[in-house]
Design goal:
The complex is a heterodimer of chains A (251) and B (339).
Chain A lengths: L1 E10 L2 E11 L4 E5 L6 H9 L6 E6 L2 E2 L5 H7 L1 E4 L11 H12 L16 H10 L15 H13 L5 E5 L7 H18 L2 E5 L3 H7 L2 E6 L2 E6 L1 H5 L2 H16 L1
Parallel strand pairs in A: 3-8, 3-9, 6-7, 7-8
Antiparallel strand pairs in A: 1-2, 1-4, 4-5, 9-10
Helix pairs in contact in A: 3-4
Chain B lengths: L2 H41 L3 H27 L7 H18 L3 H23 L4 H21 L1 H4 L22 H24 L1 H17 L5 H27 L9 H14 L6 H19 L3 H16 L3 H17 L2
Helix pairs in contact in B: 1-7, 2-7, 2-9, 2-10, 2-11, 3-4, 3-5, 3-9, 4-9, 7-8, 7-9, 8-9, 10-11
The chains are: A alpha/beta (251), B mainly alpha (339).
């Protein structure tokens, strides 16, 4: 279980994350929403070690990871994908996967053997199949479509077999149809892999449709948490974020 | 085994053997190259040609090791020449002052290089891009001025004079020109083979990941700093090997070996030959030395000619010669497959 306790981070005078306390039970699927500048990405950066929190705890199965380096946190089982697909542009899909498994198996410093190591194959193959990238295994990452690059980014996180997977806007920059395909994929991964998934999403239709639990951030604080129905009817959320347009549409 | 797994095993098997085959192929190419080079003295009495190959060995080892940093890791070092100079001086000094057997001095020089590279690298690899380039350049100047000012030990601006003793070992007499030639070729081929292995190992792919996206690599659990330091030290070792070949060749060591222009030439060579293929720097080495030798024969303004050639590669082709050839081949290959 991932437990966030009183997490805080300020930039200058701005409290980007302000006393956030949250629980993500094992195997849960949670959407994080909030207006621009609400501190969603900062929240992810604090959990994954990209930023050091000013105070608070990030407990994964009781171990406090707050303030540790990204490699350490990854090794404890928190993987992430990025808002802008973060990939290795000159490697092929297959090389990317194999190299990532090497890193996870701590063989990324091996000098005397040839890449790829036989023991990295099965996991790489499995995740390529899972994300539908197996047919594009020999494509250089830079030549993939935007959607496939996002999938590759997620595949990179997933191939490490994380306990918790953080997805920063998996549907960013996608057209409406592509969005649904991506989010169905995310839901499918969550169901089949039995891991804890937390994702940031802007599209309200998507969030309300697939997330059993929603966290609303606003100015670094938790505005509300709950099921889609609870969030939809939460007056603070309507006022701060959804605005009258959505309320009107719902009515 | 389920049907799915069986199908998967089918697809995986060939890929596995490709990696093994690649290794045999590299060793085979190295053996053939060495056989060709080593038999050269049988066909020609030209001392100039053999000298040319010895210089190519020294510079080739140096330039290829620089490519491990520039091409594979994305670390553009402007001070890599310091390890070339360090190799030449350490080896020369050990031979002159201690008179150890050559193989012992060779290993001792590598150990000294590794130590110094680890200290300098620990400071440099924390820095990014232009800062890394500048600080490596600064260390190069530091080593160069140390050599100049510590005249009682290093001979100052006169260099290590009086010749480096080259006692025979295991029937190899490096004072003999042909022996020296064959030893240089052997070092070149072994060095290249070792660097090729590094480039194609899991570590080599970790380098590529860091070059492409260091932040992402760290989110895969890779300790980027440690990897960069490791490759910095490894590259220094091969540069030092190049320096030792040079010291043996000229039977001395001179401050120019440790001057920043050596690093500059290394970058030149990499631009000429290309950094996207393993042998690019080797091709660049031959090109630069050929240009140097021919142009200086015709004009004293050889700097201008070299500059124009570099501009042609940098602005005209926008890549090195071997990059260009490799791209042309892959285009043809793609066209042939109808993709």
């Amino acid at each position: 279980m991932l437990e966030i306790r009183n997490l805080a981070k300020s930039f200058g005078g701005v409290k980007a994350t302000n006393d956030v306390t949250l629980d993500f039970p094992d195997g849960s699927l949670t959407a994080v929403i909030g207006p621009n500048g609400a501190g969603k990405s900062t929240f992810f950066n604090l959990i994954t070690g990209a930023l050091k929190p000013d105070s608070g705890q990030v407990l994964l199965d009781g171990v406090d990871l707050a303030g540790r380096s990204p490699p350490e946190i990854v090794r404890h089982g928190i993987g992430r994908a990025f808002q802008v697909a973060s990939i290795f542009k000159s490697l092929t899909v297959q090389e990317t996967m194999l190299a990532a498994v090497s890193a996870d198996q701590r063989s990324s410093a091996v000098l005397h053997k040839r890449f790829p190591l036989p023991e990295t194959r099965d996991r790489a193959e499995h995740v390529m199949e899972l994300l539908g990238l197996a047919g594009k295994r020999n494509r250089t990452a830079a030549t993939l479509s935007h959607g496939d690059q996002k999938l590759l980014d997620i595949a990179l996180a997933l191939v490490l077999e994380p306990k918790v997977l953080l997805l920063d806007e998996p549907t960013a920059g996608m057209g409406p149809e592509e969005r649904w395909r991506m989010i169905d994929k995310v839901r499918e991964l969550w169901e089949t892999q039995k891991i804890t998934v937390v994702f940031i999403e802007h599209d309200m239709d998507i969030v309300f449709k697939i997330a059993p639990k929603i966290v609303v951030l606003c100015y670094g604080r938790i505005l509300a948490t709950g099921t889609p129905d609870e969030i939809r009817n939460d007056s603070a959320v309507i006022e701060a974020y959804l605005g009258t347009e959505h309320a009107g549409a719902a009515a | 085994m389920t049907e799915l797994e069986a199908g998967r095993a089918d697809r995986l098997a060939p890929v596995r053997s490709v990696a093994v085959l690649q290794r045999y192929r590299d060793v085979l190419i190295a053996l053939v190259a060495f056989a060709v080079l080593a038999s050269l003295p049988l066909f020609t009495g030209s001392k100039a040609l053999l000298d040319f190959v010895i210089r190519c060995s020294a510079y080739g080892l140096f330039a290829t090791s620089l490519n491990l940093l520039v091409g594979y890791t994305g670390l553009t070092s402007f001070g890599h020449g310091m390890f070339f100079g360090l190799g030449a001086y350490s080896f020369g000094l050990i031979m002159q002052k201690l008179g150890l057997p050559i193989p012992v001095a060779f290993v001792a020089t590598l150990a000294i290089t590794a130590l110094i590279a680890a200290v300098i690298g620990a400071i440099c690899v924390r820095l990014k891009e232009i800062y890394f380039a500048f600080v490596t350049l600064a260390f190069q100047m530091l080593i160069h001025s140390t050599i100049l000012s510590w005249a009682s030990f290093t001979g100052g601006d006169q260099g290590l004079r009086g010749g480096i003793p080259r006692p025979a070992f295991l029937g190899i007499n490096l004072a003999n020109h042909v022996h020296l030639y064959i030893a240089s070729c052997a070092l070149l081929v072994l060095g290249l083979l070792a660097m090729r292995q590094i480039a194609q190992s899991p570590f080599g792919y970790t380098l590529r990941m860091i070059r492409d996206n260091a932040a992402r690599a760290s989110f895969l659990g890779i300790d980027v700093w440690r990897v960069k330091l490791t490759v910095f030290v490894l590259a220094a070792l091969f540069a030092s090997m190049g320096g030792m070949v040079m010291a043996l060749f000229v039977s001395g060591a001179y401050p120019e070996f440790a001057y920043w222009t050596i690093s500059g030439e290394g970058i030149f060579i990499n631009m000429l030959g290309g950094v996207s293929t393993f042998l690019g720097p080797m091709v660049g080495t031959v090109l630069l030395l050929l240009l140097n030798d021919t142009v200086t024969r015709f004009t004293e303004y050889h700097g201008i000619v070299l500059g124009v050639v570099i501009l042609f590669f940098a602005l005209g082709l926008r890549k090195g010669l071997l990059d260009f050839v490799a791209e042309w081949f892959s285009h043809r290959h793609d066209a042939g497959e109808g993709r």
